[in-house]
Amino acid sequence: MRVPFGLPSPRCARLIARTELRRRRRRLSDNTRRLIGIGIGVLFGGLYVLGLVVRAYFFGTALRAGDGGAIVAFVRTGIGSAVVLGTAFVTYWTIVGRGSLDEPAALLTARPYYDVAAGVLLAEYLQALLIAGLPIVAIAAAFALGAASPLSFLAVSCTLLVVLACVLCMGYAIGVGAKNVAARSRFVARYKTVLWVLAFGVYLVVIFGVSGGVGRSLVGSVVGVFGATPLGWLVDLALVAAPGLNPDSVRVFLAAGSLAVALPVALAAAIVLSGWLWYVDPVAPDRSGRERSAPKTGVAEGVLSGAVPRPTLAVATKSWRRALRAPLNLQYVLFPLFFAYIPLQGIVESGTVPPSAPVVIAIYGAWTTGAAFTLNPFGDEGAVFPLTLAASITGRRFANGLVLAGVALGAPLTAVATLAVGLLSPLGTIRAIAAGALGGVLCVGAAAMAVGIGAAYPKFERSRLSRNRRAVVPSLSAFALYSVALPLACLPGAVVQSDFVVRFLAGSVGTSGAFVALLGPVATAVLVAVGAGLGYRRAVRGFEGYTL
Q: Per-residue pLDDT averaged across 58-62, rounded?
């Protein structure tokens, strides 16, 4: 399909951008969960930016003293890596949350697509400035202050602002291009979940390859090459007015030329690809030309069909199928992994597994098992919840089915992962086996605890996961209470994994260290069992006594 192209109207682009930003502000003000996440991100991001500002000041001071030449090569590599990773992040964000319009029929009928696309890109850039504008200005000002060069402030800030626009346009163009492929390819549309998992695996390899340092891995070696390309020469352009350096005119010219070419090309590509996406009729991956007489029975269903009552298995099967059809609805269970970056980086760099790793994996596996299927038992039923209440199923079997949905998958995986990491750690074989068994038991208790907390704080309203995706997710109260209650219950068993804590407690109480080491897991098991019993009873009574 041929889509005509024309020069966007600046006036229409500004109007569309202003309207788009107003809509985003309203959606954000209505989403308490996202506001809390943004607040946490601003807190940690502000500390990171503060470190960059301090480094920029001392870098400028070193250049003024004539000692910063050796740092320039490192900064070139860092800027090149930031451009690549930033483009990858914008690409991901475009695929999952951007590239689509809220009211496509109204916008594309009133104005040509290139006006609309230009307005959307302008809104994206203005939103990016709200996040990165102040850090860019602060870094440029700190560097200029340290270098005692006012012109450096203009050079650094202008270069970084133009680089931000290039990264945004390139990432947006790649993301919209990927969405075009998914909209036109039946194969990609059908297996996009598998492709996303593979892409996430590649992302982890890249991140940990970079964290290992340049020269420690193939990825690190590739990153080291960035400094010798126009991506790294952007530093020479930004430092053209800095004292103590003799800028290479060839590098400065190539860097400026690369920006002058990349920005309009990426902008035009993003606009054209947006038009192709908005006017396409997406393929339907499930239309294979054959009608299925009955859904296929999964492996878990076949294994459990003879050992579990049919109503209980039906509830569990419904949860599994819903997760397979919409896996992004469970993306919140991956949030704790972002806090695991620094510990995993230390394990990769040192090559040793600390004794606390099996305990952390057991607790995270139990938390995930409970959060995946049981943290919103009533809200997950959606529009069929009245039919579920009217069906011939008891509250006990309903709760059993939800607990089974999480435990059947989470308990074996958690036990095996905890055992494997325990064998690699200094715990020893016996303690590793005990940790693996405790991880499996914690999964059962966590699921029963979560189903009660979710029944006490249900949520039926849909939340916006991205621009074009809404889903019912657990309420903020249930999520917070569960995320606090389970770690507190696991705390006694976790702290006794430290020999120092065991010796301190044994000396304070006047007993043996072996008794303290045994008492911790026993206390955790008792607390989790009490929480599981209370949660299970609350879910059963809540289901049987629920009134519409």
A: 86
